[in-house]
């Protein structure tokens, strides 16, 4: 037997937590792009949307490397990002991206 009101209450708390997360992400002045272990985009803030020239909804679940990194740099960037994910260290390196208007930028 499952208490429906408990499930509803948990759902409301989850929605509130997601809304708070969105507010916090969007209040940051830096570009934030959250990637999965497979380097797919799982979240980004409004600053990243503006920087990349793409709406959040159109980028979610896309492979970050193939979607935004210039082809000559893809293997290097993929290696660096996987190293960062595996080692959990704050490695600082520039990631070249191509924005929606075709501009090459670094993040």
What does this structure look like?
- The protein is α+β, with helices and mostly antiparallel strands and 107 residues long.
- The chain is 50% helix and 12% strand.
- The protein has 5 helices and 4 strands.
- It has helices at residues 4-27, 46-52, 56-59, 64-68, 74-87, and strands spanning 33-35, 41-44, 96-98, 104-106.
- The protein has a two-stranded antiparallel sheet with strand order 1-2. Strands 3-4 form a two-stranded antiparallel ribbon.
- A hairpin with a 5-residue loop joins strand 1 and strand 2.
- The longest helix is centred in the first third of the chain and has 24 residues, at 4-27.
- It starts with a helix and ends with a strand.
- The relative contact order is 0.11.
- The model has no long low-confidence stretch (mean pLDDT 90).
Entry summary:
The protein has about 110 residues and is α+β, with helices and mostly antiparallel strands. The chain has five helices and four strands.
Query: Element order, helices and strands?
Result: HEEHHHHEE
Main sheet: strands, sense, barrel: 2 strands, antiparallel
The chain-level structural class is: alpha+beta
Gyration radius from CA atoms, angstroms: 17 Å
Number of helical elements:
5
Estimate the global geometry from the Cα principal axes.
Answer: elongated
Which regions have little confidence, pLDDT < 50, spanning 5+ residues?
Answer: none
Helix amount: 40-55%
End-to-end separation: 51 Å
The neighbouring-strand order within the major sheet is 1-2
Mean model confidence by pLDDT: 90
How many strands? 4
